[in-house]
Each structure stands twice: as structure tokens, then as C-alpha cells.
Amino acid sequence: MTRSILILNGPNLNLLGTRQPEVYGPTTLQDIQDMCSAKAAQLGISMVFRQSNHEGELVDALHAARGTHAGVILNAGAYTHTSVALMDAISSIMLPVIELHLSNIHAREAFRHKSYIAPVAIGQICGFGAAGYPLAMDALVSYLGDAE
Ligand code: CA2
Q1: Rounded to two decimals, what is the model's pTM?
Q2: Within 6 Å (CB) of ligand 1, which residues are found?
Q3: How far does residue 96's CA lie from ligand 1's centre (Å)?
Q4: Which residues are catalytic?
Q5: Which residue segments constitute the domains of the chain, with CATH numbers given?
């Protein structure tokens, strides 16, 4: 069976490419989704790409990933810095999760240096803009190896 991964995006990422291009770049979330689809085909995996502005929906999507997907790439947006609920959800699903950010959160405001996702993720990719998405897909597929 084809391996599947979930790419999950949090609040305000639907606005990408439309505002603050100096911070987040000119690429839209649809452009990123298209890039990820092409990368998935190249890697021989399937991929579900989602975005929600609602914390509970992100928690539900993480719960539903168990049994459906082999791993998750999560750009939790601002919930990265606030959400114990997302941290607990990741701990509960027993799936590898890669934390992803477009910007280098460590080079920005102090409140962005704290991540509730980092302690429960297998790793973090940040600061490479939209290119971080295919990088994270390579990293997740490599982490998963031949295991089911
Ligand atoms: O760099 C990232 O990917 C972030 O997860 C983006 C979040 C931010 O709160 C995190 O600290 C880092 C914000 C996403 C907001 O996206 C916008 C896009 C266009 C216009 C306004 C916001």
C-alpha cells in the first residue's frame, strides 16, 4: 500500500502570499500544496494537505492521522508558541511529527522562541521559506525508512 503523510497547517497560513510577503515570502499556500503534491509523486508517497484556523480542528486532524498516515509535518503557526493541547495531541498519537516553519522562529521576537511542539517532535525545520516543506518531506520519508 502507498505510504501516506499528513501536512497540517495552522492559523493564518491561508493568508500566505497575500500579506506580509517581506516576512513570509510571495508564495501562496496553494503554491506550497502544489509543490508538496509534486514532491509526493517524486517520493512515491501520498499526501493529504490541510489548513485550519481552529486549534480544536488541528487536534482532531492529529487524532485522525493515527491509523491513516505514517507521519505528520506540522506548521502550527502561532499555536506553536501557546498550545499545550497540540503538544498533548502529538504525544498521544504515537506518530512521528516534524515541526515546520517558514521563518526562522529563533531569529524573531522572544515569544516565538518558545515551542510547545519541539519537545514532542522528531525534529524541526525552520527559516527556509516554502522550500522547507519539500525538505521536511525528505526528512520524514528518510526517518520512516522501510518501516510500516
Ligand atoms: O514561520 C512560520 O511558518 C510561522 O509558523 C508562521 C506563523 C507565526 O505565528 C509563527 O511564529 C511562525 C504565522 C503565520 C501567519 O501567516 C501570515 C501570512 C500572511 C500574512 C499574515 C500572516
Answers
A1: 0.97
A2: 12-13, 15-16, 19-20, 24, 75, 77-78, 80, 101-103, 105, 112
A3: 23
A4: 24, 101
A5: 4-147 (3.40.50.9100)
Of the chain, the end-to-end C-alpha distance in Å amounts to 10
Per-residue pLDDT of the chain (148 residues; tens, 9 = 90+): 789 999 999 999 999 999 888 878 889 999 999 999 999 999 999 999 999 999 999 999 999 999 999 999 999 999 999 999 999 999 999 999 999 999 999 999 999 999 999 999 999 999 999 999 999 999 999 999 976 5
d(CA 14, CA 17) in angstroms, rounded, equals 9
Distance 10 CA to ligand 1 centre (A): 9
Task: For residue 9, give the nearest of 106, 128, 130, 109 by alpha carbon.
Answer: 130
**Sheet arrangement for strand 4-9:** 46-51, 4-9, 71-75, 97-101, 123-126
Give the integer Cα–Cα distance in Å for 134 and 128.
10
